[in-house]
Specification:
about 90 residues
């Protein structure tokens, strides 16, 4: 696809614009720009989606770790309290 765009843009550079070529050049310019905008937009959205997934994954792991850490602390404190009561 990149080769097609380069070929179109190279074909686009004609020395003498005749009335027959003007419409073709405008059409090719529009297709070229829209294609590049589409590539840029898809690349940016893909990067944003990956970044958001990465951030959400980190947040989820962090919260999960804190929850398990607190549960372990509570269990340990309860066990130590029971042990102290038995003594």
């Amino acid at each position: 696809m990149y080769a097609v765009t380069i070929f179109i843009s190279l074909n686009n550079k004609r020395k003498i614009p005749t009335p027959k070529n003007i419409v073709y050049n405008k059409m090719v310019n529009f297709i070229n720009k829209s294609y590049l905008y589409f590539v840029y937009f898809s690349f940016v959205t893909f990067n944003i989606r990956n970044t958001l997934n990465h951030i959400l994954q980190i947040k989820h792991n962090y919260v999960f770790h804190i929850k398990t850490f607190n549960n372990n602390n509570n269990n340990n404190s309860n066990a130590s309290n029971n042990h102290d009561d038995k003594n």
